[in-house]
Design goal:
The protein is built from seven helices and 23 strands. The chain is of the alpha+beta class. Strand 15 and strand 16 form a beta hairpin. One of its GO terms (molecular function) is structural molecule activity.
Length: 369
Amino acid sequence: MKILYMIIQSLLMICLFLPGISLADRIKDLASIQGVRSNQLIGYGLVVGLDGSGDMTTQTPFTVQSIISMLGQLGVNLPPGTNLQLRNVAAVMVTATLPAFTKPGQHIDVTVSSMGNAKSLRGGTLLMTPLKGADNQVYAMAQGSVLVGGIGAAAGGSSVQVNHLSAGRISGGGIVEREIPTVVGQGEYINLELNSTDFTTVNRIVDAINSFYPSSAVAVDGRVVQVKAPADTSQRIMFISQIESMDVVPAKATAKVIVNSRTGSIVMNQSVTLETSAIAHGNLSIIINTEPVISQPGPFAQRGETVVTQRSQVEIRTDEGNLMLLPKGADLGEVVKALTAIGATTQDLLSILQALKAAGSLRADLEII
C-alpha cells in the first residue's frame, strides 16, 4: 500500500513539472450538431395564494385586467366599475427552455418572475399559463407551486430579506404540448459546429474523424466540419455517438486579457506573453490639512473680539518610482510576478496593461468590459 502511494505521488509530481502537455477534449465538448438546438418560450400569467405580498392593484392596472379576464373565462362576471383591492395576486412573466427532441407530455422547468410591485412570490401558485415560441404558437403549458430561494420578514418598520423574493422556479412545472421538428443533418451529411471559431481545431477534428472513417470529414470554414453520415436513422445516431466520443487536442487559445473596469478584476490566459519592455511605477500624493486657528485680543485691550480663522498646510509626497524590466517572451506567471513586485494595485494594472498594449509590448488582445 505504501509503495502504491509513493507511485501515485511520483506521477502527480511529474504532471506538475510537465505543464506543456495538453489534455485532449471530446468532440462533444468542442462542437455541436447543426440543427440540434433548444428554443425559448415565454408566457404571461398570474400567481395566487400570496400572503399579502402580491401586487398593489391600484398601481398595477394590468393585474386587475388579467384577473377580470380570467374570472370571465371561468364564468364569473363582475359588475362594471368594480374596484378590486387584492394583495394575494401577482402578475408574472413565465419563461422556459424547450430542449431539442422534447416530445408532447414531457415536463420542463419554468422560471416565474414578478413584473409588478409584488414584494414576494413565496408560497404562491402559478395558474395555468400558455408558453409561446417566437412564432406565437403555444408549445407548453405551465402551472404549479412556485419555489422561491429566499426569505423575508418585516415588523414595526424594520425588515430583513435573504436572497431574491421576486422570482422563483417550478421544477417540472411545464408540460410540452407540441413538438418542434428537429432534423439531424441535411441529406447524407451532418455538420459539426465548433463552439468558437478556430481553424487549427477544425483541422484536428477533421484529421481525427478521417483516421477512423477515411475521407468522410471535410472542413467547410473555421467553424463548421461537414461529415458524411449513414442514411439510416439508427445507424446515423450510432455514428454521431462515436464521433462525439473522439478525443481531440484543441488549439491553444488566443492570448487575451479581460479587464473589468467596474470591479477592477483582471483575467489573463496562459498564452499572454510580453516583448522586452520596462515599466516605471510611482505615486504622487498631495495632502492638504486644514486646522482652525483662534485669534483673541491681547491683554488689557479696550476693544476687540475673538476671531476663528483657518490655516491650511499643503504637503506633496512623491514615492520612489520603481523600474522593472520585463524580458521578452515572459509568460503569465512572470508577468504577474513582475507587476506584483513593483507594488502595482488592481487599478494600477489597468493603466499598465493599456500602456503595454499601446506600446506594442503586450502580445494579447486587451478587452475591457
